[in-house]
Design goal:
The structure is a homodimer of 390-residue chains. Chain A has 390 residues and is α/β, with parallel strands linked by helices. Chain A is 34% helix and 19% strand.
Chain lengths: 390, 390
């Protein structure tokens, strides 16, 4: 059932422990579902209750803990030995009396780690304020350190096997985007187009099926394209609609995000012009990318490429992505924006996504890419254009 | 664009303020996306960055805050006046330098609420440990109180309009379940069946389309049915597979969860027997439910109904549900289990879900229901049985 060799998980663990030592952390409590998966293989929709993976410098294997009814899931999907899968009873679930972090503290005590320097993923969804306060309350002394993004940064460089899965996800993304472009038309219910998109995401290709994506298909129309993160509603497409498509493929939890834009009818000159500018900027920026340049230099290249046009883009133009769970396929490490001096290195995967949201409509055309030894390679083969259906 | 009359939102706000007063909270910082939606209408996939709604006793309208690029989304989907929609600049996003909770504190200062008793949703996903520490750091004195579940409890009683949406979601859930039962068969790829399920969820009915569900279709097979929360994998169904189906319909973010089980081939006697016991227990329990009984009495009725059988169920057998976003359609208020003395009242909606996960396989048959004036009414019309495909 494992998607990777055990040796690959162990190598990830080795790198994680190295990073822990650099930050003075002896035990790391991993609660980010993507990080839990990355280190152990664990893959279940159980992150709506508290769970985690404990990594201790002095222990070879991590410990998975979660709800009892999910522990068989950990036995099935992880490489951990049975005694490192620890379920808590159901009275810990959404209780006002007992909290699962007390169970985690009991485990820390059992392995003699309750007085060691503990790192927690401080700003991760699923590590709530209550989790933090419960740990502070239950631990004998307050030794809690910020262990945010330790595993995320290890994740930022992809292995050959990970890149294979990203390529499979990209094949799905191409089918998904084609399905969307084909399905959207005047008189079609937006929900029927979205249904086709979902179907394409999961049915995948003739060779392999797909997995659920960490972000739903973002496919707003008309005025709803003036903002990020809205999607379909219960209406029919009309002539004059802009439709933004921020879609994806997913395989074994590895993603391929991809954005394009459709216009129904004869596009206004302003939209045509914006499309031209954005695609020009996108092409120029991709040409620039290679190992050794920084994230902010990539953004600067984009900004210079579109200078003098009417396009203004104030938010970041891309971010690291890969393995993930809802609500985000981004890795929360690299952002293409001023101030991010991360040096790009081979094996990094970034979604270049210069989304434009104006007062009345928007435009999106994006490319996910891999930093290679000499430059970058885009993952997806799909025309960079405004798709016009007249 | 609003799914409810403004007066209904205002009534929700009134009840929320009443509950705040009872808990000594003058300002409530709402970060649960379902609670944000419930009070303001806000509906976007933007909860992967920090955002919130501020409710102050001394202010008529809440304030929405979030990322700048999402603020047009708030203008489109909420009933709030423009000056109560406040976007933060992109340098707050996933930054190691600035945190969006500092922006929230600036807003609290602006409205003269930074020294008032502040409630936060302490154990809600999306309110991270870092959020809590940032508020403690930025506020002039530590006045933070636990405001967990204040809005969730207001949500527990549904209005007529909410019940209408729950009924629409239920029509979708029936189609979704039928699609699953029809699609699953020996030799079919699990991903193709899952694709059909997604398609049915979103295409909905001839009258209305559906929305994305807060939980993916949970549809594991074979050994993977021995645990909760796994789903399809890239394999074909085989003779002898048990397939669990924990599916749903969703309309305007209101859900209809529904579980059934399929067996491919001639079911083993043990599975047949478990199905019989569970369905008997389910029927008995539904007969018992009426206003005035407690959540734990419902569980007790179930436990007595299955006593003496080989079915043992150690986890809760149901929970409140309704409006929600990933990762959960549950409301985190009522749990059908020992110790929960919540008195059932008309308008409450609960998913009775006695999932059974044994060492080698599982069985699920559930019913979402509405507590009525005299008893309860199930939302979904779908046969309660083990679906056998020979």
């Amino acid at each position: 059932m494992l998607y990777f060799e055990v040796s690959e998980y162990q190598e990830r663990l080795r790198k994680t422990k190295e990073a822990m030592q650099q930050r003075g952390i002896e035990v790391l409590l991993v609660t980010d579902p993507a990080n839990m998966n990355y280190l152990t293989g664990y893959d279940g929709w159980s992150f709506y209750v508290h769970q985690g993976v404990i990594v201790a410098l002095n222990r070879q294997e991590p410990i998975w803990f979660g709800r009892q009814q999910d522990s068989n899931g950990a036995r099935i999907t992880t490489w951990l030995q049975d005694h490192n899968v620890r379920g808590y009873t159901d009275d810990y679930v959404q209780s006002q009396v007992k909290h699962p972090m007390s169970f985690a503290v009991d485990l820390l005590k059992e392995i003699g780690c309750d007085r060691k320097d503990l790192g927690v993923e401080m700003d991760n969804y699923y590590f709530t304020g209550r989790c933090l306060d419960q740990l502070r309350h239950d631990l004998p002394n307050d030794t809690i350190k910020n262990g945010d993004l330790i595993v995320n940064w290890v994740r930022s460089i992809k292995s050959a096997q990970e890149i294979d899965y990203l390529r499979m996800a990209s094949r799905i993304a191409e089918k998904v985007m084609q399905t969307a472009v084909d399905s959207i038309d005047v008189g079609v219910r937006e929900g029927d187009a979205a249904a086709n998109v979902y179907h394409a995401q999961i049915s995948g290709t003739a060779e392999f099926t797909g997995d659920y994506s960490a972000i739903i298909p973002i496919m707003p129309s008309a005025l709803r394209t003036s903002t990020a993160h809205l999607s379909w509603v219960d209406r029919k497409y009309e002539t004059g609609d802009v439709v933004l498509l921020e879609l994806s493929g997913c395989k074994n939890r590895y993603h391929a995000p991809l954005s394009r834009t459709v216009y129904l009818g004869k596009p206004p000159a302003e939209l045509d012009e914006i499309a031209k500018v954005v695609i020009h900027g996108l092409n120029r920026t991709l040409d620039f990318i290679k190992p050794g340049v920084t994230a902010e230099q990539v953004e600067e290249t984009w900004r210079h490429a579109i200078a003098g046009s009417r396009v203004v883009k104030e938010s970041r133009v891309g971010y690291a992505y890969g393995l993930n769970y809802p609500p985000d396929w981004g890795e929360h490490t690299i952002s293409l924006r001023p101030g991010d001096r991360t040096v790009l290195r081979p094996g990094m995967t970034i979604h270049f996504m210069p989304g434009i949201w104006l007062d009345r409509f928007g435009f999106e055309c994006s490319e996910p890419f891999l930093v290679t030894e000499n430059g970058c390679e885009t993952f997806v083969d799909f025309p960079r254009q405004l798709f016009v259906k007249e």
